[in-house]
TrEMBL record:
This is Uncharacterized protein. The lineage of its organism: Bacteria, Pseudomonadati, Bacteroidota, Bacteroidia, Bacteroidales.
């Protein structure tokens, strides 16, 4: 019984790590797209001057 519980616990930790990693990567993607839009906006403003 204890062995199964340990395995289950390991699986939960594994999934939690994956979820955190997934969220982190998604946030990075959002930051990258935001940065690109911001840079594009700055370039457009420079051209308009």
């Amino acid at each position: 019984m204890a062995n199964n519980q340990e395995k289950f616990h390991e699986i939960i930790i594994f999934y939690k790590k994956n979820i955190i990693l997934d969220l982190f990567l998604r946030k990075q993607e959002i930051l990258v797209t935001f940065a690109r839009k911001a840079l594009l906006g700055m370039k457009i403003q420079e051209v308009m001057k």
